[in-house]
Amino acid sequence: MTIHDKVSTGMTGFDQAIDMLRLGDNVVWQVDSVQDYLKVVTPFVEQAKRDQRKLVYIRFGNHERILNDDSELTVYKVDATKGFESFASEVHHIIEQEGRKTFYVFDCLTDLLESWYSDLMIGNFFKVSCPFLYELDTIAYFALIRNAHTYSTIAGIRETTQLLLDLYEVNEKMYIHPLKASERYSPTMFFPHLIKGHEAICISASSEIAELFSSINRGEERLDYWNVVFANARKALNLDLEQQNQTKRLLISLLIGNESRMSELCFQYFTLNDILTIASREIGTGYIGGKSVGMLLARKILEVDESNRFQPYLESHDSFYLGSDVFYTYIVQNGWWKLRVKQKTAEGYYQFAPELKEKLLHGKFPEKIKEQFVQVLEYFGQSPIIVRSSSLLEDNFGNAFAGKYESVFCANQGTPEERYEAFVQAIRTVYASTMNDDALTYRMNRGLFEKDEQMAILIQRVSGDHYGESFFPHIAGVGNSSNLYVWDKSIDMDAGMLRLVFGLGTRAVDRTVKDYAKIISLDAPLRRPLMAIEDEKKFSQYYVDVLSLSNNKHLTKRADEVLSNDLGVDKHLFAKVDNDTLTRIKELGYNHLHVPYILDFQCLLKETAFASLMKDMLARLSSVYEYPVDIEFTGNFKDNHSFKINLLQCRPLQTRGLGKPVQMPQKTDKANCLFSQTGNFMGGNVHLPIDYVIYVNPDAYIEQSEQGKYAVARAIGKMNTMLKDKNVMLIGPGRWGTTTPSLGVPVHFTELANMSVICEVSSNDGGLMPELSYGSHFFQDLVETGIFYAAIYDGQRDVVYHPEKILQKENLLSSILPEHAKLASTIHIAKTPSMEVFSDILTQKLVCK
Q: Does the predicted model carry a pTM greater than 0.85?
């Protein structure tokens, strides 16, 4: 250490006491007031000016300014109310910009409590900023109000900082007591020192020290400020309504968010006691996230409905909420904050996401949080649970994030240690899903990549019961209050629709392999959707998702096997015996293990109040939201046909409605159409010019190897980017976006997000079939991005399809994507300057000519 590495505090005697400051030092003062902090900041700043140091003041507090503007000082005003990530990132960029050997004065850190209400997050801010300041050989002054923070917060700051000092004023005398001073030592360094002029007089006599310290209030261990605020809020339950509402609005801002349509609805429907009950089930601190808020608000709207129509049918919930602050704490305490900041930049957004994702899958949680995890698992016992994403922006007006983040089922079997590890890994998996390609692109496309997207988590008991060795609800599904899949003139689109499955709802929200969910139009639930292939059995559910308790995981089983169990209710509510198959089996002399069933839900729809209840429920929620809604639910029945609905999720449905009526072309020569049909489309009324058609030839695609099929998908993704500002129609065999190449082209949704129209074409020879996946996450993506969808069942009645209209045109693949020229037999890109698509919802006519 040379003399050039040492820096004066501006107080000569104190320099002697601590052997001066060193480049890289973070200096934290525990003070009784900001005025006391000024007494040590002023000489430090004056000395820095004399030494011609670059001097920066970081201003964020509500207290009086510590330093006034002058030509030798750079002042940055940073807004703490924007939240931890925004604040910490802005300070990081300031430090990066100002560079090495800059001297800093920060406002009193305790003032951050007024914006964040969390000691934990103040500690996190210090832990991410202090090492960066140290790395750049800066010197930075910070202050904390004594006895305002938890011991664990102070312990974390002590561990991170280079100098921690107590500053006392007793009997109008100023004392400094060093508590930590890294890389320096003297026999008297850690005694209190009386500051007298330029001198620092060491107080080493026991009698003097005892007298000094006995007059100082050391305080008791404090709760985190977050807990203090909520504890004090309970006292407001005994106050008048106006005071309760003031407290309620504060708590809503802490748990749910600042002013928004959702927070106003929460203020309208939740009581103060409701909010306190929610807070009592939170792990950590911070927001509970959009999915949790949507679920809780929808339930409350239905519970307090004046008609009392819904309350008797609602299954209770006992969910927990992992606060959004835990997400940041996880990143900070594992040492990944600098990587997080790099990833949040435009240049590093995609570049650093894979590395951060991998780290998020393998981090450690703080001991206090781990203990709360144990308590949650003890509460649930061996009941299966699901760990669900609940990010700040999720399920809100404008951004649904449908299916972009993970949800993880925990069958919750095995030893306590095994159940704990599975639970914690589920949380890590949800955290890591913030770096999924689809989630990153979704945020980027909506201009959200720079916004705080903290990940809270919703922990729910799985709805259902044990049937054999499996656990599942009788039914589950998705409901939309607006039915855009209108296939005849009599359908009331405002009555809503359901996408219903037997077993776990994963098969309702995802596009399933070789399987179809039941589509129910709630104005006439027994009305069958228009199908180009009139085969009830073919377009039904063959497989059921369950939690296997013996295998301790989520499994898919054949419906016949699951239906062979005692369901505790008449299984004909959900299914009818497949008599044709049963007869054939008997005629062939086979010993069939299980009776074959067709899941048609006809008795459920005829003999129970289920459909009318769901119609009314969707209408009520949509009315309060003043917006169409999308819900997820489960249902469990008893042998008397009574039932309970568990409302798992509710969010605004990002729908564009029917659109204005379209003048359909008159006397269309079907021979000149690319396609013409009745029904099997989604996207409202359109009249859309088409600039390009990208056509995937079914025969050539089927002949491709699996690797070749993935190459086709990646080529589509590149064209999706290159033709972004054009009206492009994408036509291909089977299902777009499938994860199974044998069923269609395995593109990610982000690889077709810029298309104007996508068409799925049946290919009987290859077994490739479209799926009208209305209500699924795939559908949500289509609606949010405004993509028109059509399923073309080639060869069926009323379907005209002439792909040769495209194949006769020049294939532009080699000129647009020369690196994929070898796929020219499979992918054909044609320029189509005069092509147009017309659709009319009421007549269900669709024409492309």
A: no
